[in-house]
Amino acid sequence: MYLKDKIPSHFHQIFVDLLEIEIPYEKIATCKECTLCVHEKSPYQKIKCCNYYPRVANFLVGGIIQDENLKFGKEIIENLIEKKIGVSPFGIFPDLLYTKRKNAFTERISINHVKKDIIPLICPFMKNEMCTVWDYRENLCVTYFCSSISGKFGVQFWEELNSFIRISEIKISKYCMKKLRYKEDDISLFYKEVNNFDLQNKNGTLNKKKYNKIWNNWLLKEMEYYSKCYEIYKDLEYNEFKKIFGKDYLVVLNSLKLKSKEFLKNVFPEKVIINSKATLKIDKNTVTFFLGSSQLVLDHSSYFFFKLFNGINNTIDVEKKALSFFLSINNYIEDALNKNILLNANTLITE
Ligand code: SF4
Ligand code: SF4
User: Fold this and answer.
1) pLDDT, tens digit, for every residue of 259-293?
2) Ligand 2 pocket, residue 333 CB under 6 Å
3) Distance in angstroms (rounded) separating the CA atoms of residues 292 and 272
4) Do 240 and 300 lie in a common domain?
5) Does 292 lie in the same domain as 256?
6) Which of 203, 232, 265 is the last residue before a domain boundary?
7) Ligand nearest to the CA of 324
8) Which atom of ligand 2 is nearest to the CA of 124?
9) Is the beta carbon of 141 within 6 A of some atom in ligand 2?
């Protein structure tokens, strides 16, 4: 497939150089049949990995507002603006209290994933189990895959693409602000303030003084402001976008193209088998494979799934099974292939 099939269509006018970059299908992270929701009692049922608050840039907020098909998304934005939390001229971002909840969750997350911890983190743009802003979703919502078919090569590609889109979103949102007569110095200062949650008091309530100052002439006209940002963005041409992105544009683009080649080249074999020459040592906490001077150390849970590599099971099915227990063995697959502890079963049969 090509990136044009993955990147939201409104971006096509400016991401011209990205559209024909070829990538493999991500067959493990099949979001319609989410790996986190395989079990009936999974705490991620109906949530998937949308326990995340996106940072929706101003022009994307405007895109949602003007889109007749995204009425729910527009209602959610109206509601957030009414509460004035996380709402700034840069866009709609996670607020202080959400960020604290998320940080606490990230610190204590282990194998115990519990629904009561996940529910308070559900994305505000999710309604009736659906994303209400899909066509205007932000960088991470475009590029996140819980596991890649090419292991670290896929992860690196998606991270780089994510960074490219995120930087573009930030630069375009600032460009829109300038067009709407914010001064360059104010934009830099306000950006720091918004990211420090200065528009909120420590208990999460609104700091009205800061909010009024940052919105200035646009105060109480936030919806109109976001719509104008979208109009400015729609008039943005490819060459102008490259100028906005700055001198690193070609460097980032070339790096992305190189990473896409690695991504394509390193797709996991369809079926793999544990090398019969490898020996095994099982300890209390770990399981170690030895082959020549190479070793591979696994924890017992990962070994439970690793044993399924018998040349019959599909590689992606085994990783999917592990993910359904909130465990990824992708790194082990990759390491084991490099050390010949896992072998491509199809090549063995042909030989
Ligand atoms: S990226 Fe993974 S966890 Fe998220 S929806 Fe897709 S399959 Fe589910
Ligand atoms: S914006 Fe959509 S895809 Fe992104 S986290 Fe929210 S519901 Fe999920």
Assistant:
1) 999 999 999 999 999 999 999 999 999 999 999 99
2) no
3) 19
4) no
5) no
6) 265
7) 1
8) 6
9) yes
